[in-house]
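User: Please fill in residues for this 507-position structure.
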């Protein structure tokens, strides 16, 4: 099932993005403060500076709350409004503005305070806040999570989501924010906090922890900026967390990846360096096959989670497809013997719709190309329930791989179908060729239990006038054949030149 026309299939996506952009621009802050000099003690310590304790530089351990605390004065002096204007790298491919909006929310799903990343504004709530929400515009995706006084770390939330509801007295004490996909390719994301006891943190970056853990304080002001990676960041990137020790992933002075707990305990759990997941057990980074929380994962020698297991396991021809409509994510699950389908073999980003059925189904029909309705065609189709199909993105007017609307590729995250599951052509082709008839398809909806692996994002958008999906195996094969042809021609040319040179030298 599909949306009925091009506006809902392609232009709807762009309109939604623009609407979000315009809403960001409505917030302005009147708070101003003096400038703040950059701290030379940066967390980005080179590996040959062994004398510097990187973990200690990230923690704040010597702070004492002033006797006559005036939060308004502290926030005004914290220099939160010094950054934000015209600091984001432009999107030269699609021309769309890149923007991140963050908001302090209460338990009643209302924003207390918020701000866009490309403005000098910041979020401020003297009484703190129990929930964090994020939005974005442009190609890519953003993630955040919050540490609350009574409940600890929340699940990671995606753009358009908020951390879970809770007690209004369960204040947010610390945050982690990271950019994924094209927005994060172009920009780093930095964030800084002011605490209820008057402490001011340095600027955290790309998933670092900012705030406090293990104290009674909580975040009252938050500033987030997106920063062009080609520009030097001028502010302090040390002193991020008011705690006995820093909490989060870091690299020590030798370059080794570590996870530090605020109470210095040995850590067991997941950790992200930027967007790369690792797993630690009793403080040690894990490699090889590991059973974790009911799933079986494979980690490379350096500890990175391997998210595509086809090169490791080969093709098994025995899979279960699981799909979470709350996150628009498809998981191809492989069997682990008698343990069942607990291996996250592949993970695909997707598009679904309000009519996507929930339940257990099976693939029972396939089509290389199919006319859907009006002027819409799709390829690599696997039907699993009545009019609901797993398939490629949509092509207009003709069943040709050169009839794609680029918006349906670039903005998969915010697009909607009529209920079918859209994939990039390469992913749809993989399902079409490798998931046999009778393959189970299980659809469910769970916002905060997102699944075993975080879905990928669009790292490189396609130009708005490009008419093909770069992952389509037909396109890829043609490109490879042309590249091989050009390489052969160049090799022949060089060989001819060498032969001619040898003949001339012989003469």
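Assistant: Residues filled in for all 507 positions:
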């Amino acid at each position: 099932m599909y949306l009925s026309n091009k506006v809902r299939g392609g232009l709807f996506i762009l309109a939604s993005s623009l609407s979000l952009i315009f809403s960001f621009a409505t917030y302005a802050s009147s708070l101003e403060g003096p400038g703040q000099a950059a701290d030379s003690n940066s967390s980005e310590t080179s590996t040959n500076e062994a004398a510097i304790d990187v973990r200690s530089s990230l923690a704040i351990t010597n702070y004492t709350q002033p006797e006559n605390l005036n939060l308004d004065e502290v926030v005004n002096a914290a220099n939160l409004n010094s950054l934000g204007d015209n600091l984001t790298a432009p999107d030269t491919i699609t021309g769309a503005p890149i923007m991140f909006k963050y908001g302090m929310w209460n338990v009643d799903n209302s924003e207390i305070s918020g701000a866009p990343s490309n403005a000098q504004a910041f979020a401020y709530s003297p009484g703190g806040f129990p929930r964090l929400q994020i939005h974005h515009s442009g190609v890519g995706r953003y993630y955040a999570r919050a540490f609350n006084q009574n409940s600890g770390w929340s699940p990671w939330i995606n753009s358009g989501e908020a951390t879970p509801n809770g007690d209004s007295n369960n204040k947010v004490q610390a945050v982690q924010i990271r950019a994924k996909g094209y927005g994060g390719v172009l920009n780093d994301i930095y964030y800084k906090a002011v605490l209820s006891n008057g402490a001011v943190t340095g600027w955290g970056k790309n998933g670092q922890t900012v705030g406090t853990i293990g104290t009674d304080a909580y975040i009252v002001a938050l500033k987030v900026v997106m920063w062009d990676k080609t520009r030097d960041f001028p502010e302090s990137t040390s002193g991020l967390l008011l705690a006995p020790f820093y909490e989060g992933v870091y690299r020590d002075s030798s370059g080794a990846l570590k996870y530090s707990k605020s109470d210095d305990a040995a850590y067991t759990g997941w950790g992200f360096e930027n967007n790369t997941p690792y797993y630690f057990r009793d403080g040690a980074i894990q490699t090889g096959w590991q059973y974790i929380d009911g799933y079986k994962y494979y980690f490379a020698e350096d500890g990175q989670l391997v998210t595509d297991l086809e090169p490791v396991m080969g093709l098994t021809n025995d899979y279960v497809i699981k799909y979470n409509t709350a996150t628009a994510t498809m998981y191809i699950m492989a069997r682990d013997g008698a343990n069942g389908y607990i291996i996250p073999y592949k993970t695909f980003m997707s598009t679904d719709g309000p009519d996507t059925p929930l339940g257990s189904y099976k693939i029972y029909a396939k089509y290389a190309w199919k006319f859907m309705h009006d002027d819409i065609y799709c390829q690599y189709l696997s039907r699993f329930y009545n009019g609901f199909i797993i398939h490629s993105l949509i092509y207009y007017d003709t069943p040709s791989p050169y009839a794609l609307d680029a918006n349906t590729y670039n903005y998969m995250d915010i697009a909607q179908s009529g209920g079918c599951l859209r994939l990039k052509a390469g992913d749809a082709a993989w399902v079409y060729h490798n998931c046999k008839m009778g393959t189970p398809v299980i659809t469910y909806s769970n916002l905060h239990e997102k699944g075993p692996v975080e879905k990928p994002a669009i790292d490189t958008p396609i130009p708005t006038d490009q008419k093909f999906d770069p992952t389509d195996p037909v396109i890829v094969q043609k490109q490879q054949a042309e590249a091989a042809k050009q390489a052969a021609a160049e090799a022949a040319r060089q060989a001819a030149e060498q032969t001619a040179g040898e003949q001339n030298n012989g003469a």
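For context: The CA atoms of residues 104 and 219 lie 10 Å apart.
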